[in-house]
Amino acid sequence: MLHRTWLDRLSDGIIILILCLVAAAMIVPFVYIFSVSFTSMEEYLRRTFILWPERWVTSAYQYILSNDRFVKSIGVTVYITALGTLLNLAFTTTMAYGLSRQFYGRKLILFMVLFTFLFSAGIIPTYLIVKATGLINTVWALILPVLISPWNLIVFSQFFKGIPEELNEAALMDGANPFTVFKSIILPLSKPALATFGLFYAVSHWNSYFTGILYISNPKLWPIQVLLRQIVVVNDTSALTMTEQILSDPPPAETIQMAAILLATVPILILYPFLQKHFAKGVMIGSVKG
């Protein structure tokens, strides 16, 4: 065992203290949001800072979950996230696998991909294209323009290059066609990468906010992040259209805001434990391969 001086112990203590402060800075706001969402109106008006309610109430959640627009918005976001992530992975992996093979014109296509990675059309030209294709006020406006991420495409392509070519050759010699090779051999070997970039795509779709404001003006098609903007930033709780079972004494707007934030955040957090075993490995896949 190495001898540790008082200076080593002091430096370790300082590092631990800094890490604890950073962790507290991240955890305390979440605890505050969680606690306020379960706080009664009387307690909220009486206390300035709440980390643990004296009495737990669920009126804010009853108010939100009895709301047609909030439930509809969650449904729209789930639909966009599920369908968008599936299409993202399908198009990204197929194009990346093609670019990982040698064929005439490959460098030109790869250059076009890199060009879009470095330079974008801008907000106004992109909006005009989306409008000209008739995607305004449809969920496809939040899916098709971001169908393939150039960065994910390049990393996937590098990952596919790292798969031994002998596997492809053996399968082709056994009579398999290229699509069968891709489906039965390449994709099963790509589970860490699929889980990692699937999570990236899913989080991006779930948090789609700016594109929702640009392309969706119909409140019935608002994703949850756009509705949260109306509730939290604009402070417009009238954006919530209630059913006939509305509470006669609604909770404070602040508790409604906190409850809405939690309900919009927790579903995507649930994905992390299921993908964690693939995430650490998949996040580095393809990044060091030439």
Describe this structure in words.
The chain has 290 residues and is mostly helical. It folds into 2 domains: 1-57; 60-282, MetI-like (MetI-like fold, Orthogonal Bundle). The protein is built from 13 helices and no strands. Helix 1 (6-37) crosses helix 13 (253-282) and helix 4 (68-100) runs antiparallel to helix 10 (191-206). The longest helix is centred in the N-terminal third of the chain and has 33 residues, at 68-100. It is globular, with a radius of gyration of 24 Å. Mean pLDDT is 80; it is low at 242-247 and 286-290. It is found in: Cell membrane. Keywords: Cell membrane, Membrane, Transmembrane, Transmembrane helix, Transport. Its main location: membrane. The chain crosses the membrane at residues 12-34, 76-97, 109-129, 135-156, 256-275. It is a multi-pass membrane protein.
Summary tags:
2 domains; 290 residues; MetI-like; single chain; mainly alpha; globular; transmembrane; disordered C terminus; MetI-like fold; transport; transmembrane helix; MetI-like_sf
Instruction: Give the N-terminus to C-terminus distance in angstroms.
Output: 40 Å
N-to-C series of helices and strands: HHHHHHHHHHHHH
Which regions contain 5 or more consecutive residues with pLDDT less than 50? 242-247, 286-290
Task: Give the CATH H-level superfamily of the largest domain.
Answer: MetI-like
Radius of gyration: 24 Å
**What structural class results from the helix and strand content?**
mainly alpha
Strand content: under 5%
How many independent structural domains?
2
The largest β sheet comes out as: none
Number of helical regions: 13
Query: What is the residue-averaged pLDDT?
Result: 80
Helix amount, in percent?
55-70%
CATH fold category name of the largest domain: MetI-like fold
CATH class of the largest domain: Mainly Alpha
Supply the CATH architecture of the largest domain.
Orthogonal Bundle
Q: Overall 3D geometry?
A: globular
Strands, count: 0
Oligomer: single chain
Family: Belongs to the binding-protein-dependent transport system permease family.
Membrane topology: Multi-pass membrane protein
Organism: Paenibacillus eucommiae
Domain ABC transmembrane type-1: 74-275
